[in-house]
Amino acid sequence: MTRRLKILDEEEDDPILSAINLVDVFLVAMVILMIAVQNDPVHQMLSGEVTVIRDAGKPTMEIVVKQGEKITRFQSTGASVDGNGTKAGTAYQLSDGTMVYVPGGETK
Fold first, then answer.
1. What is the secondary structure of the chain as a DSSP string?
2. Separation between Cα atoms, residue 21 and residue 18, nearest integer Å
3. How far apart are CA 64 and CA 97, in angstroms?
4. Which residues contact 94 (CB under 8 A, 6 or more apart)?
């Protein structure tokens, strides 16, 4: 006489299983949404120090600096600056596009 488990004979039409699968899909979607929100640039602007440059190199250039709760805007007048000064260093652009600033006067 062979005994069979009752669980193996039941059909998979239980409506509770469908509801559990929907909850699983909903949880995965919520995790993906939370990860996307944390990587959002607006979220990063709200949580630290940020510098944004708009219209770089154009006469309408604007620099917005956020430090904590304080926001400072620097707007270009479009005019060239002329005056006395000293050399503060040299900037180099590497082959990968990054800029390197070397402070100081003359190099030897």
1. -----HHHHS-S--HHHHHHHHHHHHHHHHHHHHHHHHT-HHHHHHTS-EEEEESTTSTT-EEEEEETTEEEEEE--SPPP-------EEEEE-TTS-EEEEESS---
2. 5
3. 24
4. 100
Burial 81-106 (b: 16+ CB within 10 A, else e): eeeeeeeeeeeeeeeeeeeeeeeeee
pLDDT at residue 62 greater than cutoff 60: yes
Domain chopping of the chain, boundaries? 13-47, 48-78
Q: Is the pTM of this model over 0.85?
A: no
